[in-house]
Amino acid sequence: MTGERIAVIDLGSNTFHLLICEIAEDNSWTVIYKKRIYVKLASGGVDLIDLKSARRGLTAMRNFTSILKTYGVSRTKSIGTAALREATNGLTIAKKITDSTGLIIDIIDGQREAGYILKGIQAALPPLDRNCLVMDIGGGSVEFILFNGKKISFKESYKIGVAILHKRFHLSDPMSSNEINELENHLEETLGRLLQVIKASGGYYLIGASGSFEVINDILEKYTATTHWSELDTNGLDTYFTKIISTSTADRRQIPEIPPERIDYIVVAFILIRFVLRQLPPERLFYCDFALKEGVLVEMIEEG
């Protein structure tokens, strides 16, 4: 398999990712191309993907198909997540993509998605001598995985992705205090079992996987910083969350560390992260830019 080029496409509810790697004889890989397109597939809701969102997704996949040919990719896995699995027309849209591009879309359930995320995280981070909670925030779902070494004690996917939370709770601009309270009450009810499991675990490290955690990684001081992960100094983080949560859309457009594509959803994302940090203060906070697509890549290499 030396020199083979393989690719993973992650058809997320907010972002479509393309990762192309070249595989060495020892099964290590080198990234030769990465691209993400903010499709916002779930912007109209996850129950039914609207026509405009579906067209954006199809255009992105046609673009990716052209890139795959340019780079001489021999194997590709295309993974559909929350939006495609929850929408009543998800299978129809996946079939249209296949008919147009030849790429077969594997729509996975939340448990399998969480498993790929953990596999990706473990490919980047060194072993940690503690219970670790992975938190991966997507547009349609949020995955939480509690593990220690090879032992997984909790793995769940919740339908509280930022597109869903934004559509249901972020109705004012800026978001009202009542809306914030309603969202936090919803999180307390939805994440009740997770909170119990973590409280009983006797302490943990939190690992934020890509997505909205990218912004946090950009603004915080680091205890350790490597190519694919960092340990973050959380001093001042709660204050920063409160500041951003109170902003209007126009305000956020003037904040340099918030990418234009995250301006709409960053408020509910920060309310979610702040909720977890307040309810379950971690002993250490890590950021990792490996997640689902890297986990799928590891599996592809293992399969040969």
Note down, in words, how this protein is organized.
- The protein is α/β, with parallel strands linked by helices and 304 residues long.
- It has two domains: 5-108, Nucleotidyltransferase, domain 5, CATH 3.30.420.40; 127-288, Exopolyphosphatase. Domain 2 (Nucleotidyltransferase, domain 5, 2-Layer Sandwich), CATH 3.30.420.150.
- It has twelve helices and twelve strands.
- The chain has helices at 51-70, 82-86, 90-101, 110-124, 162-169, 177-190, 192-200, 213-219, 237-245, 249-252, 266-279, 292-303; strands at residues 5-11, 16-23, 29-37, 75-80, 105-107, 132-137, 142-148, 151-158, 205-209, 222-225, 229-232, 284-288.
- It has a seven-stranded mixed beta sheet, sandwiched between helices.
- It starts with a strand and ends with a helix.
- The mean pLDDT is 96.
Spell out the key features of this protein.
Nucleotidyltransferase, domain 5; 12 helices; 2 domains; five-stranded mixed β-sheet; 304 residues; alpha/beta; seven-stranded mixed β-sheet
* Biggest pleated sheet: 7 strands, mixed
CATH superfamily of the largest domain: Exopolyphosphatase. Domain 2
Low-confidence stretches: none
- What's the quaternary structure here? single chain
| Helical run tally | 12
Number of domains: 2
Strand/helix succession:
EEEHEHHEHEEEHHHEHEEHHHEH
The global form is globular
What is the element layout, followed by pairings?
Layout: E1 5-11, E2 16-23, E3 29-37, H1 51-70, E4 75-80, H2 82-86, H3 90-101, E5 105-107, H4 110-124, E6 132-137, E7 142-148, E8 151-158, H5 162-169, H6 177-190, H7 192-200, E9 205-209, H8 213-219, E10 222-225, E11 229-232, H9 237-245, H10 249-252, H11 266-279, E12 284-288, H12 292-303
Parallel strand pairs: 1-4, 4-5, 6-9, 9-12
Antiparallel strand pairs: 1-2, 2-3, 6-7, 7-8, 10-11, 11-12
Helix pairs in contact: 1-3, 4-12, 5-11, 6-11, 9-11
